């Protein structure tokens, strides 16, 4: 609850220092019962390896795909997801939530 | 994000200092505002408000959506007294992502069997703070639960001096009145002593150790998230 996404940002820095391409995704807005709070991070490398969570598992795949595009073109982007589809329901996530995620490359 | 900004953010966190990353959502430009720089910043008011609540969030700056990534050091809970309430409190606090340390010089109480997996220090609080336990700071909560002034008082004094965001002490109003007298004699001002929450915990008529632990943790969350009462 009270701690920040400490390890994610540390990982982002060390991955970048190791020469890996890195993007950072951050939940910037939520509506309804979104599973992860505003400020949650996910870090992605150029091979699609990731650490952290922006939705508890529901939209991570899409975030990773967008992150790879951000790594390729260097443009930050904001993506909105509804966390209310059938997949979300099946994996037991709260229904009716929506989240906005900022995705940016670490230069 | 520029790599130097990420590095600076991580430097602040490693030093247990708060910082806020200010991001223009539309174009991705960013700057880092360290805790000590907030008062002089053009966004001082919203930055201070978000920092006090420990909450990241969106604000509008001249019509532009701006995201504040609030980074506060991980909150620590220092529990004085390896007592029955602490046995319930420590694992619950860990479930809230609080880094818990239990301090009690009485080795019969501070035994690993009673506190499996919990950071346990069998020293007097004064000795512990100058030795094994990292110094108290504004991102620490301290709960004094021994009922023994010899153990509780030095820890409460240390917590008040360090500006811990939460300082709570177990005991009846009568016990607390005696404590106030002792701390006054030790040179603490009424304002500082007034920061001690006693009786400890939100008033939910808690009866069992686990219920008292819930009351204490709920109070810690309330103080952390709502800020001090105005």
Automatic annotation (TrEMBL), chain A:
- Superkingdom as given in the UniProt entry: Bacteria
User: Which InterPro entries does the UniProt record give?
Assistant: MoCofactor_Util/Proc (IPR052698), XdhC_CoxI (IPR003777)
Q: Which Pfam families match?
A: XdhC_CoxI
- Which intervals hold domain XdhC- CoxI? 15-82
Show the coiled coil region(s). Answer: none
* Name of the protein in question: Molybdenum cofactor insertion chaperone PaoD
Q: Which organism is it from?
A: Methylobacterium trifolii
What gene does the UniProt entry assign to this protein?
Answer: paoD
From TrEMBL, chain B:
Entries under Pfam families matching the protein: XdhC_C (PF13478)
Task: Name the Gene3D superfamilies on file.
Answer: NAD(P)-binding Rossmann-like Domain
Q: Boundaries of each XdhC Rossmann domain copy?
A: 77-220
Signal peptide range in chain numbering: none
InterPro entries registered for this protein in UniProt: MoCofactor_Util/Proc, XdhC_Rossmann_dom
Specify the protein name.
Answer: XdhC Rossmann domain-containing protein
Q: Which organism is it from?
A: Methylobacterium trifolii
């Amino acid at each position: 609850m009270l701690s920040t996404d400490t390890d994610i940002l540390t990982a982002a820095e060390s991955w970048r220092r190791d020469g890996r391409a890195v993007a950072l995704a951050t939940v910037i807005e939520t509506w309804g019962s979104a599973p992860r709070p505003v400020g949650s991070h996910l870090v992605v490398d150029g091979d699609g390896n990731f650490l952290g969570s922006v939705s508890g598992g529901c939209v991570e795949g899409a975030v990773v795909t967008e992150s790879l595009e951000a790594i390729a073109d260097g443009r930050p982007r904001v993506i909105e997801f509804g966390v209310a589809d059938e997949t979300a329901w099946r994996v037991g996530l709260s229904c009716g939530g929506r989240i906005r995620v900022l995705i940016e490359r670490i230069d | 994000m520029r790599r130097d900004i990420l590095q600076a953010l991580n430097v602040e966190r490693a030093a247990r200092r708060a910082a806020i990353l200010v991001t223009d959502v539309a174009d991705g430009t960013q700057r880092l505002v360290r805790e000590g720089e907030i008062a002089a910043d053009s966004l001082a008011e919203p930055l201070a408000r978000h920092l006090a609540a420990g909450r990241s969030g969106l604000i509008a700056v001249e019509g532009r959506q701006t995201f504040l990534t609030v980074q506060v050091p991980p909150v620590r809970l220092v529990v004085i007294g390896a007592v029955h309430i602490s046995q319930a409190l420590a694992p619950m606090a860990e479930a809230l992502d609080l880094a818990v340390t239990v301090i009690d010089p009485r080795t019969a109480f501070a035994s690993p069997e009673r506190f499996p997996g919990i950071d346990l220090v069998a020293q007097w609080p004064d000795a512990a703070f100058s030795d094994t336990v990292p110094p108290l700071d504004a991102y620490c909560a301290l709960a004094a639960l021994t009922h023994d002034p010899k153990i509780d008082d030095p820890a409460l004094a240390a917590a008040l001096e360090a500006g811990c965001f939460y300082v709570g002490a177990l005991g009846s109003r009568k016990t607390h009145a005696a404590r106030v007298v002792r701390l006054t004699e030790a040179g603490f001002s009424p304002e500082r002593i007034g920061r001690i929450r006693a009786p400890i915990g939100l008033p939910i008529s808690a009866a069992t150790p686990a219920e008292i632990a819930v009351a204490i943790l709920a109070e810690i969350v309330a103080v952390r998230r709502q800020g001090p009462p105005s």
